[in-house]
Amino acid sequence: MINKDLGAAILAAVGVTFAGGSALAGKADDTVTVAFPRQLETLDAYGATAREAIILARHIWDSLLYRDQQSGEYVGNLATGYEWVDSLTIDFTLRENVTFHNGEPFDADDVVHTLNWASNPESGVQSQGNVNWIENVEKTGSYSVRLHLKRPFPAALEYLSGPLVIYPNEYFEKVGARGMGTDPVGTGPYRLEETRDGTTYVLKANENYHGGPKGNPSIGTIVWRTIPDQSTQFAELLSGGVDWIWQVPPEQSKALTGRFQVVDAQTMRIGFLNLDAAGRSGKNPLVDKRVRQALNHAINRQGIVDALVQGAAQVVHTACFPTQFGCDQDVTVYDYDPERARELLAEAGYPDGLTLPFYAYRDRVFAEAIIGDLRAVGIEVDFSFLNYAALRDRSQAGEVPMQLLAWGSYSVNDVSAVTSHYFRQGSDDYARDATVAGLLESGDSSIDPDQRRSDYSRALKIIAEEAYWVPLWSYSTNYVFTEELNFTPNEDEVTRFYAASWK
Q1: Secondary structure class of 400 (helix, strand, coil)
Q2: Low pLDDT (below 70) residues in the chain
Q3: Alpha carbon distance 449, 329 (integer Å)
């Protein structure tokens, strides 16, 4: 039975009436309605970095490969097979008799066009780390291609099984990235049928889908709604307006247990404070290592995890998720020690404390808890809560001294997807440590697993010792959905509605 006080508060807040049993309408109409809080800037898979965009992309498009969630093995998707010719060359045999949603046939030209375009720095691809290891792709037959790497990159298969989706070359040449961002066309298990006001997307099962490792979708229609307000999400769930929501706070998810299925699943997403050690935003106290160390000691991470983050979340001490390849845990650990934080601030010349600008785009309640801990040691903050796009743009322009961020590594289970993104001299690197960048470049390029582990370990030790970040915690995600739905979450935080079904 749903917690009556919570249910009443939610319903009163949004002015709706709970109609018992209406949640079953989804199964009756073969339509699962899902709600996500963040509005998508674009549907172009290469133009967005938000988790919601990544999820939607996996339904509309396919990649060459697919990572089996149980075995971890890479299997063919748009490719039926692959072979490493040498450390810089991969040959792919492509799947035949596949068509895009607009009827355009899939062949080698689509692969060549997509990956050569995406790997061009002038393409505007948001996450260059996904593609900057590609030298070029050449057509070797109507259904075969050869991919050339700029350097040995052992994580190539991981990217080719995830974010590197394949576009139809003829359609893309007509509409470009902007057109793909409003009217996407892929080979995936679902096609976009309708967009409503940029907040609702209607996806229909692709009746001509090739099947492959994703399998043919069981549910006929997905209605994807953008509902930023969580109370509204709850009310819609209660009234049957939606069938599935995620990232539900633990207390609310507990209250919803019984009426709905509630699943708490671990993810590889981590939260952290990125600190401007390099002074990109101008002269600031964070260029002093002692101030950064003070921040690390000041925050009661375990207390925040226990009281607020909850679930399967855990405190992290590294600039990566513990299970990612190369994420060595033998690094400097900063215990919660407010007195030591005050001492370090005094040593740095701030015996009476200081004020720092502090930015966030999500998890306001977590940010406020951090602010309270900082205030307790004499650090006041000038807090700005921006939307994701605004903070991303300011951050990449080097204008943000301290920011609360979360990173899901594009669901890539490798240190290169997170540590290298933030510490290899890119637009998100606020440390600008040449030694760290060099070690990461070496680790990202080596095909020797032991060498990679060694390089990553050394880089992570420096990052921790220099306190370039304040690693905070991993995230778990609470999924709440109708009892009529078969849905299984995965640690990579990619919701696979194409694998869902009705009971």
Answers
A1: coil
A2: 1-25
A3: 17
Q: Are strands 200-205 and 190-196 parallel, antiparallel or unpaired?
A: antiparallel
| End-to-end Cα distance, the chain | 21
Rounded to 5°, angle at Cα 251 from 20 and 480? 50
Between β-strands 31-36 and 221-226, what pairing exists: parallel, antiparallel or unpaired?
parallel
- 386: its two tokens: 């921006």
Amino acid code (one letter) for 77: N
Question: Is residue 138 a contact partner of residue 157, using CB atoms and an 8 Å limit?
Answer: no
In angstroms, the CA 321 to CA 271 distance is: 10
Amino acid at 343: E
Closest Cα to residue 201, out of 19, 421, 35?
35
Residue 174, judged by CB atoms within 10 A of its CB (0-12, 13-18, 19+), counts as: exposed
Report the DSSP beta bridge partners of residue 144: 93, 141
pTM of the predicted protein model: 0.75
Task: Return the amino acid letter for 30.
Answer: D
Of 227, 447, 244, 443, residue with least CA distance to 328 = 443
> How deeply is 68 buried, as exposed, middle or buried, from its count of CB atoms within 10 A (0-12, 13-18, 19+)?
exposed
Dihedral, CA of residue 169, residue 175, residue 180 and residue 184, to nearest 10: -80
* Beta pairing class for 379-385 and 354-360: parallel
Q: Which of 218, 271, 316, 260 has its CA nearest to residue 1?
A: 260
Give the Cα separation of 394 and 1 in Å (integer). 45
Residues 426-484: tens digit of each pLDDT: 999 999 999 999 999 999 988 888 999 999 999 999 999 999 999 999 999 999 999 99
Q: Are 60 and 66 in contact (CB under 8 A)?
A: no
